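re: ur msg from earlier - yeah i can do the S-adenosylmethionine complex, just paste it... oh wait u already did. ok heres what im feeding in:
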Amino acid sequence: MKRTQFTPEKSCLLAVALSGLIIGAFLFSNLIRSVDNISSFGLCSLASAKARAAADYDATPTQLQSILHYATSKIVPQQSLAEISVTFDVLKTRSPCNFLVFGLGFDSLMWTSLNPHGTTLFLEEDPKWVQTIVKKAPTLNAHTVQYRTQLQEADSLLKTYRSEPLCSPSKACLRGNYKCRLALSGLPDEVYDKEWDLIMIDAPRGYFPEAPGRMAAIFSAAVMARGRKGSGVTHVFLHDVNRRVEKMFAEEFLCRKYLVKAVGRLWHFEIPPAANVSQRDGWYC
Ligand SMILES: C[S@@+](CC[C@H](N)C(=O)[O-])C[C@H]1O[C@@H](n2cnc3c(N)ncnc32)[C@H](O)[C@@H]1O
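and the outut:
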């Protein structure tokens, strides 16, 4: 696949920065624990609260594995540090949370580590690639997904989806919705049964005509976000917005009015539940 060219210096810098992010989070949490130990010295009534807090701040096995991995690997994630930081900033306020990621790759261990004690689930099109990555990082939670679309159908899907009632904002659902081709209808139950606080769309592949393209992932993320029942918004991150199809489908389903940040090739949307939006002008935006 087409990959960004990294110079050894750049790769090294990004690996050091990633390790720094994870080690920094770990050290900061230990510092908080130490301060807490000193300030509450002798106050037995706080002992159980302290013990709970200490357990919350302990590094998870995945975080420790992640430090080792990124400190010793020459292969770094494709997103830049500035792009990764957009999602990291949201994770710092929402974690532990439910984080759904389209695509498995060299960034997966990092995303799981940045959401300690939360649920981070990866959806990947290529079963062999799942095996390759999970072999190296067995704690990752990944499922294989079959897409029913191809990149070359993007224009016609956008032109015709409004004629299928089960694609409409008032009727669209995902589980079992075979009629709307943009709906990811056959995902594992875990995906439908959870409410996702953050959704990262960095897959499937969308750079050759027969590739699945990101149309269905974008549509399905919009349906999940609009259906949110919990408080707050759903954060949706879309990578590769330099490409025509990603941009077109984002404009149609994720909506410019919900775009809150654009960094490099990443767009960040905050999508409110449809139930909270008073002005409904028919379709998604
Ligand atoms: C843009 S990539 C996602 C890359 C990921 N965000 C990362 O930083 O590694 C989208 C898809 O390309 C495929 N892919 C990525 N790297 C690959 C590799 N080295 N070999 C085979 N497939 C790969 C996977 O199917 C993945 O879901």
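cool cool. Residues 8-39 form the longest helix (32 residues). ping me if u need the other ligands too
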